[in-house]
Structures are given as C-alpha cells and as structure tokens.
Design a protein that fits this description.
The complex is a heterodimer of chains A (about 170) and B (about 190). In chain A, about 75% of the residues lie in helices and about 0% in strands. Chain A is an all-alpha fold and about 170 residues long. In chain A, helix 3 packs antiparallel against helix 4 (about 100-130). Chain B is elongated and about 70 Å long. The chains are: A mainly alpha (about 170), B mainly alpha (about 190). The interface between A and B is medium-sized, with 32 and 36 residues.
C-alpha cells in the first residue's frame, strides 16, 4: 500500500482523523453549551422550582472550581479541533498533490503554536485551580514538549522542501 | 539550507531527546529487574493469596505500579513497559541521527526517510508485542488461573494513528530526497 496519494495510508489516516473530528466537534459543542448554561443554572432552577408540580431538591449551585473544569476541557477540545483540522488540510495535499507547498509549512507552524497554547493553558488552568480548588491536572510531559518542538522542526523542513520544489518546477 | 532559528529549534529538540533517552534507559533497565525480582520481593500478602501490597516494588519502580497489583500483573506491566521503552529508545536513536542531518543542512537525505521507516516498523513490532502479551495473559488467566488483577491493557486505535503518521512522514522525506537528488543532478 502506498503511503501518499489517492487510496494510500494518508487516506486511511485522513479517514481516522475525520472520525476523530466528529467526536471532538460533539464534545466541543457540548462544552460550549455547558459553559453558557452552567452559570445560569441556579436562576433556571429557581425559575422552574415550584412551577407546575416541579420540585427540585438537589443542590443546584455551581462553584467557580466546577466552571473552571468545564472551561479547561473547552480549551483542550478547541486546541484538539484546531490541530485535527490543520492535519486534515495537510493530509489533503498529500493525497491530491505535492506535500512540498509553503502552506503546509505555515500549517505546521500554526499547529506548533496551537500545541504551545494548549500546554500554556494547562499551566494557567492548573494555577487557577489552586486558587479556586478545582480538580484540574496539569499533566504536562516531556513527550508533549518533544512533539511541539518536532512540529516546529517539521515546519522548517517543509519550508525547505517547498523552496526546493519551486526551484525544480522553475528548472523544468 | 536550514535557517538559524530552525537550527536552534533542532538543537533544543536534540537536548530534550537526550534527556528523554536517559529517562527511558532508567525505565528500560528497571523494568526487567522488576519482572525478574517481583517473585522475590518481600511483598505483604493481602486478604487473598493473590493480592499483594505494592509497597515493596513501588519503592523500586515508583512510576509503574498501582496499589493492589498481583505478582503476575507486576510482571506483565514491567514486560510491557520494557517493550515500549525499548521501541522508544530505538526511535530516539534514529531521531537524533535525523536531527543531526537536518542541522547539517541535509534534511532531505534518503537516509532520513529510511530511518523514519525503521522507526515505524519498530513501533509496529512493539504494538504487536503488546497485543501478544495481552493474549498470553488472557490465555494464562483462563488456563492456569493466574490473576492479573490491577493490570488492564487498554487496546486503543490511537497508537496506530501515530504509526501511520510515521510511515507517511517517511515517504515525504523519501520524496523530498528524490527531488533533491534530481536537483543536484541538474546543477
């Protein structure tokens, strides 16, 4: 089986990423709705409670820590969605054209920055969780940093490849 | 030529790779020692003969053990970690060689593509070995009644996504090498 081109490993990878994107989208939309609704839960509960035989006894209060946990997951899913979208765009060029285009170098760079923001957000939420006593794990590993730097290196490699390809096309 | 900023990124990555390599070496050496030594540790036996308190081995390989793991589970865990660490060390060795080539301006050397392909095959071998170990543990549990309580192998498709990515990257590097070779011949 070929690695790039139509019906290749790249297509298989793209299929897997399309599936992953659907799952991430569902999670992202759900978290976005939760972020908008959760602060108003006490208001909604007090409005509904006692109306038309509805009786709510459960604790409906949402503290800052719980909201922080939702916000943390929302940012994580946002970063994941961005990364998957960029990867799919890169894979599209691998399936239907040449991998060595300047856009791919820019996409890899964007991907690197997104991952950096994701790691930064982990620390920011970890710090905020200390203040609001939320259950947020920082969970930053050396592997994540290796991956981020490798993405930046790949971006430069692709830029070099794009330059080489342009020269070759001009020669032909 | 790869730019100066890219060179500094490459050297940062190389430093991180070396740090990871030493960590992995420690894990790679301590994992088989644990697998061999697990039956001889002075473990406190729990309520049933197969239950153990992981206090002893936790001291030895602190990162890998959870409380309440049985002896067979400890051996299985240590073997899996050894396989994964071995594959990762192999991958890091080749990654360092590729980084050296990139920083010396030879990003598109055929050698880089071939090295990445080797890393891909090593990752496939490690993944298959993990499935094999899982199968062996299932058979042993059914046939001999060995208790692997505390060790759950999670079979996810995610490693395969990474492996596919490595093979795709390897082909991109090989294609780049071909363009470079053609360019050098033209000049």
């Amino acid at each position: 089986m070929r690695a790039i081109g139509k019906g290749s490993l790249a297509s298989l990878l793209a299929m897997g990423l399309h599936f992953t994107r659907i799952i991430i989208w569902v999670g992202f939309v759900g978290l976005a709705i939760a972020m908008m609704v959760v602060p108003f839960i006490p208001l909604i509960v007090s409005a509904v409670d006692g109306v038309a035989n509805v009786d709510i006894d459960a604790d409906s209060g949402v503290d800052a820590g719980e909201f922080l946990e939702i916000a943390h997951h929302f940012v994580t899913f946002g970063v994941m969605l961005f990364v998957v979208n960029r990867l799919l765009e890169i894979l599209k060029t691998l399936r239907f054209g040449s991998p060595f285009v300047k856009e791919n170098a820019d996409r890899f760079r964007g991907l690197g920055y997104a991952l950096l923001i994701g790691e930064g957000a982990k620390f920011a939420f970890g710090f905020l969780s200390l203040i609001f006593s939320a259950d947020v794990e920082i969970n930053s590993t050396i592997i994540s940093w290796l991956a981020i730097i490798a993405v930046f290196v790949l971006s430069e490699v692709f830029r070099e490849g794009a330059r080489m390809k342009e020269e070759q096309d001009l020669t032909v | 030529m790869v730019k100066k900023t890219a060179k500094s990124t490459v050297s940062t990555l190389s430093t991180l790779v070396v740090a990871t390599k030493w960590t992995l070496w420690f894990i790679f050496v301590s994992a088989p020692l644990t697998a061999i030594g697990a039956p001889f540790f002075p473990l406190r036996v729990g309520p049933s003969p197969s239950d153990v308190d992981a206090e002893g081995p936790t001291f030895f390989i602190g990162l890998m053990l959870d409380e309440g793991m049985t002896r067979p589970a400890i051996i299985l865990e240590a073997t899996i970690i050894m396989v994964m660490a071995g594959a990762a060390l192999f991958g890091l060795h080749h990654l360092r060689c590729i980084l050296k080539n990139i920083s010396s301006g030879a990003a598109f050397a055929r050698e880089n593509g071939l090295r990445l392909r080797k890393v891909g095959y090593a990752a496939v071998a490690a993944q298959v070995a993990i499935y094999g170990l899982w199968l062996v543990s299932v058979i042993l549990q059914a046939a001999v009644g060995l208790d692997f309580e505390g060790r759950v192998i999670v079979l996810t498709p995610m490693p395969w996504v990474g492996i596919l990515g490595i093979f795709v990257l390897s082909t991109i590097f090989l294609e780049g090498a071909q363009i470079k070779e053609e360019q050098d011949l033209t000049v």
